[in-house]
Specification:
mainly alpha, Arc Repressor Mutant, subunit A, 7 helices, single chain, 142 residues
């Protein structure tokens, strides 16, 4: 590993530790790495072919994409967890990067799935307790 690659890896580790911190920016990165802004830019461009600010932004969007797929958080919670202060800006940046917007439609879809699962569990419980006839087709899954 070259010295620039080691420095870039150290920078990447710092960024990943601070992804949820909305005040983390290139200024804090260069202070933590103890290098000049010009050297930081040069190293990141050489190793990642992106400016440090672009790397920070990209990693935040990647984390948000992962959280949208794996967690049951809403858009605001995900935006704050990924270091975005403004959910509207986060939505705009997400749409620009991925070409589509994860809006309330995705959240509503997950909520319907959870509701359907809860209705199913409740119906089974009622069937066991009261010998209530249960037919899955009678449950409204909207």
């Amino acid at each position: 590993m070259t010295p620039h690659e080691k420095l870039a890896q150290k920078g990447l580790d710092l960024i990943q530790q601070q992804l949820g911190n909305p005040s983390f920016n290139v200024e804090q990165l260069i202070a933590d790495l103890e290098i000049s802004r010009a050297k930081c830019y040069r190293v990141f461009k050489e190793v990642f072919n992106q400016a440090p600010s672009e790397v920070i932004h990209e990693l935040r969007l990647q984390k948000s994409s992962y959280l949208l797929q794996k967690k049951s958080l809403n858009i605001s919670e995900i935006s704050f967890e990924c270091g975005f202060n403004d959910p509207k800006y986060f939505s705009k940046a997400f749409k620009k990067r991925y070409g589509h917007n994860r809006d309330n439609t995705e959240i509503k879809k997950k909520a319907r799935q959870i509701k359907a699962g809860l209705c199913h569990c409740y119906a089974l419980l009622m069937q066991q307790i009261y010998s209530f006839p249960y037919h899955r087709s009678t449950i409204n899954e909207r």
